[in-house]
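MODEL INPUT / OUTPUT PAIR
PAIR INDEX: 1
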Amino acid sequence: MQRIEAFLIDSNKLFREGLKRLLDDSPFQIVAEAGNIREGVAIAESGLRPQLVLLDLVNGGDDEAEAMRRLRALLPDTRMVVLTTDLCTRRLANALEAGADGYLMKDLSADALAQSLRLVMMGEKVFPTHLAALLISGRVNGNGLEMPISRKGLSQREVQILRCLLNGDSNKMIANHLNITEATVKVHLKSLLRKINASNRTQAAIWALNNGIGGELTGGAAASIA
C-alpha cells in the first residue's frame, strides 16, 4: 500500500505521540495533529487535505457531531475513523450519521488497527459488529449497553474457522486445514456469521481481531483478510 497521509485529532498529547511512533513503519503517516475536533475543523479550513482522519470524540454530544459533519463537508474524499476508548452507542450513532467510515477501540492491537485502516482505505465500513447490529435493530437505550461476552456461543470449530479467515484462507483451504469438507465449512461459516451478526467474511475477520482471536494465531498476525 502506498503512503497514506493521516490527520490525528485527540486531546491526549501522549496518545498522539505514541500513535505516531506506532505507525512509523506502516503506510499510515501522521502529517498533522489537533487537540480537539473544532481545532481540526480550523486546520481543515486552512487547506489541509489528508487521505485519512483519525479522531476521538470527547463526549459524543451534539456539538461534536455538528463539528464532525462540518469536517466531513470540508473533506468529502477523506476517510474518517473514530478511535476511542468507550463503547458508547450515542457516539456510534453520531459517528454513523456524520459519515464516519469506521469506529474502532483504542485497545486494539497494532496489527488489528493496521488491518482495519487498510480496509477503510479500500472502501469498507469498519464498526464493532455487535454494536452496529444493536443500534440498527433499535435495541439500545441512551448510553447504556450491555455488551455480549466476546466469544459467547462460538464453538471451538467456529473459532478455528475465524483464525483461518484472518489468514485469508478460502473455504477449500479451511477444509484442508481442518480435515473437513467444504460443505461443512460453509455450514459452520453460516452459523458463525449469524452468531456474531456479521454479513460477510471481512466483518467476521474484523470481529475476530477486535475480540482478541487474532492474537492466538500461530506464526504471528494475519497478513490479509479474505
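PAIR INDEX: 2
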Amino acid sequence: MNEAEIISRLENRLSSRRLQHSLEVARVARELASGYGVDPDKAYITGLLHDYAKGLDGSELLTIARAQFLLEDEVDTCIPDLLHAPVGAYLLETELGIDDTEILQAVKVHTLGALEMSALDKIIFLADMIEPGRDFPGLQRLQCLAERDLDRAMLFGLDSTIRYCLEQGRILHPLTIRVRNRFLQYTKE
C-alpha cells in the first residue's frame, strides 16, 4: 500500500483528531529514523499505522484479543484500550495484508514497550509520546533525549508514563514496569 491508500483507510477508521495525531507521529518518526540509521520511509508508514485499531471500543478490542490469543496478562482485560496496539498489528496483517514483521512488531509494542525492542520499535514508541500535539511535564526533555539516545529517552518516557498512571490512580501494566527496569539496566551499563 502506498501512503495515499493508507491515509484513505485511516480516514475511514479514525477520528479526524486521531488521524492528525497519526500524521504527526509519522512525521516525527521519519525525523528520528534519519538520525538513527533506520529507514525513514518505513518509520513514516509505521507511524501512520500505529493507531490502526484505536477507533475500536474496549469490548471490540477484547473480543478480537481473546479470539486471537493476544491477551498476555490479566491486566489486559482491565485496561482494554491498551490492546489497540497488538490488535492493531493483527488487523494490519489480516485486513491490509501487511507482512513486514518490523512494522507489525513496532505497532504491537508502541504502547507498553517490550523487553527487547528494535530501533524502529523505540522510534515509534517515542514519536507517539513526543509528537507536537502532546503536552505533559517533561515533554521538552523527552524530545531532546529522543534526538540523542533512544534508550535514555525510553527510560524517561516510561518513567513519565508510570508517574502519570500513579498520579491518576490508574492501574500499572506489569509489562511497562518490566520494560522500564530493563531500560534502567541498559542505561547503567
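PAIR 2 NOTE: The chain is about 70% helix and 0% strand.
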